[in-house]
Amino acid sequence: MAFGSSPADTRDIYTPGRLNREARILLEHGLPSLWLEGEISNLSRPSSGHWYFSLKDESAQLRCAMFRQRNLAARFTPRDGMHVLARGRISLYEPRGDYQFIAEHIEEAGEGVLRQRFEALKTKLAAEGLFDTARKRPLPRLPRRIGIITSSTGAAVRDVLNILRRRFRSIPVLIYPVQVQGAAAAGRIAAMIHLAGRRAECDVLILARGGGSLEDLWAFNEEIVARAIAASPIPMISGIGHEVDFTIADFVADLRAPTPSGAAELVVPDSEEWVRNIIALTQRARAAVRRALSQRHDRLAWLQRRLAQLHPGVELRQRAQRLDEIEQRLLRSMRTHINERRAGMLHLGAVLRQHSPAMRLAAARGRVDAACAAMSSALRQRLESCNAGFEIAARTLDAVSPLATLRRGYAIVTNDAGRVVTDARDLARGALLHARLARGTVRARVEHIEEPAPSAPLEASPEIPSPSGSRDRSGDRNAKT
């Protein structure tokens, strides 16, 4: 038995590999992702594409690694002595037991503050709705003129012009030269955007700038530029930096291109493709026209055959013959109908003459004339008879008339009341009397009354009334007895 060992030995013995592995696990899970700032030294970039370097400060240094899939997104090329800011996690390289920092993102140390400003402005403008998809305008399919806002001496304008010339040479381009880097660049860019909008010379604007660091592109992250893009009346496309570069202008613009060259490709169609499409459409149109003409020709031939079979002249002749037949039938029917109506009218005329009221009227007129003659004769006879009777009655009346008595010298005496006086005793002295004579009337007043002797009988004389039943005052004369 070896010295120092026992059958019940329970010690947990580590190997270097196991120790390094567990140390790595503890480091990776015990410490969170963190930011590390320092100066690059001992930079190595092997053919694998990974970066190996050290970050140091005044008191220490730390080995670092940044693998290829991560460093492709870096916005700059690192070099020894550069002060950087890296984000990553702590790990351990097990084969050698080296304690190291695995970088996932790296930027120049000055970019940290700029990045914070970028995020703050991005949040602010997003809350205001400047990044909303609803406010973004579509680009014209084929612009009449293209405006480019960029530096007139940079490589970006040359790339854009070359691509525009290659894709669609006939579209004119107007360059608005402006400073795209430096402290005054943001204000000048915004002023140029406003100028292009006021002049309204273009259908679309390209805001372009070549690649660079965050500081180089910072003019396109200023609020004044973002608000100028939002207020532009002309649709804008941004082509700033490389594909991995994002600026505030990219979010506000109506369309973002990864590069200036990409913006040129997006703003105009490919003329060769248009020509191919036009040729293809022309060929399709010709084929369609040929097919349509062939169909129309076949249709016309069929209609001609059909017309020959069913010529309107034949149909018209048949219809004309049918019309003549109908006309003859109509004439015969009309003649028959007229003859029947004429016979009926003659029969009705005969019946009407038999029952005509004229004959009855003539007979009645004869009877009326005979009745009138008989009535005239009877009336004359009646008048003659009445006249004879009247003459007899007049003679009889005249014989008994009081007037005849008056003509013999008698008078009719009446009092004021119009009553005939036959008895002197009925009168009083001073009474007014009226005596009617044969001609005229006498008014008298009683002065003396003589009563008859008792033995002598009074001669009764008939009371002769006045023909009018009242006193006749015409021809009155006053007389006193």
From TrEMBL:
Residues 449-481 are annotated as: Disordered. Residues 18-107 form the OB-fold nucleic acid binding domain. Its EC number is 3.1.11.6. GO terms for biological process: DNA catabolic process. CDD domains: ExoVII_LU_OBF. Residues 130-444 form the Exonuclease VII large subunit C-terminal domain. It is an enzyme of class 3 (hydrolase). It is found in: Cytoplasm. GO terms for molecular function: exodeoxyribonuclease VII activity; nucleic acid binding. NCBIfam families: xseA (TIGR00237). This is Exodeoxyribonuclease 7 large subunit. The lineage of its organism: Bacteria, Pseudomonadati, Pseudomonadota, Gammaproteobacteria, Steroidobacterales. The gene is xseA.
